[in-house]
Amino acid sequence: MEHFLKILFLSLGVTISKAQQTEISSVKYEELEKRIQQETDKFLVLNFWSTTCAPCVKELADFMEVNNKNKDNQKFKMILVSLDRLADKEKVLKFITNKKLTAEVILLDDIKRMNTWIPRFEKNWDGNIPVTLFYKGGEKIFFNDGEMSKTELESVINKNLL
Fold first, then answer.
1. How far apart are the C-alpha atoms of 155 and 93, rounded to whole Å?
2. Spans of all domains in the chain
3. Helix axes of 150-160 and 54-70: crossing angle, nearest 10 degrees
4. CA–CA distance, 124 with 101 (Å, rounded to integer)
5. pLDDT tens, 51-91?
6. Cis peptide leading into 130, omega within 30 of 0?
7. For position 41, what pLDDT does the model report?
């Protein structure tokens, strides 16, 4: 029985680690915008964050809990958009592993043009992070400026995910 439990835990560990990314895509704003438009069949949660942003890191545990709870729902998708520098790509990958991030993570490598793309996401966004945007049918339905609690996140999702 003890041998069986060891095998079971090893199998679970392999399964969990496979769920985490081993590569990270770096994209420009236009690629991210196209991706949002392609996800019309999903309720999309788009969180902008950075490994150096304390409130961002703090809220990620709640985001992962909510993501894991909804992972089997074909109409739900969470994407974490890292605003870390492209030079820090390996650091972001290590962060994904260490924090056990299960949502898809992409690196938005477009900081030089942020004054162009930030207002395209949300005219009231001043550029601070964390920021979370919610899309349904490819259309933005909610903007949250600042840290989000698990309760707030679940409330927006539960009101809109059908």
1. 30
2. 21-160
3. 40
4. 28
5. 999 999 999 999 999 999 998 999 999 999 999 999 999 99
6. yes
7. 92
Query: What's the rounded Cα separation, in Å, for the pair 68 and 78?
Result: 10
Q: What is the pTM of this model?
A: 0.85
3-state secondary structure 46-113: EEEECCCCHHHHHHHHHHHHHHHHHCCCCCEEEEEEECCCHHHHHHHHHHHHHCCCCCEEEEECCHHH
Right CATH for 21-160 from 3.40.30.10, 3.40.190.100, 3.20.20.140, 3.30.420.10: 3.40.30.10
Q: Which residues of 40-55 are buried (b: 16+ CB within 10 A; e: fewer)?
A: eebbbbbbbbbbebee
The answer to whether the CB of 116 falls within 8 A of the CB of 125 is no
* Separation of alpha carbons 83 and 89, rounded Å: 10
pLDDT at 20: 60
Share of the chain above pLDDT 70, in %: 86
